[in-house]
Amino acid sequence: MVEGHHVTVEWSGDPALGVVYLAAASRPHCKAKLSEREGKAHLTVQVHHTSLQTLRDIVDELMVSLADIEGE
Description:
The chain has helices spanning 15-25, 52-71; strands at 5-13, 30-37, 40-49.
């Protein structure tokens, strides 16, 4: 088994926005899953990398992308 570091980001809200967030989270080292319950979208993004610094860089870029979408 390969050692590594993991971060999980979770979000819930408007289903239309969930689809946009899902597209933004579709990137290398990220595994994104979108589901909908009771009219609310739930997004889970799992990020994995063997390098802690690279993991941090990936998560930082992901959060900037999501914040940019939120600000639109």
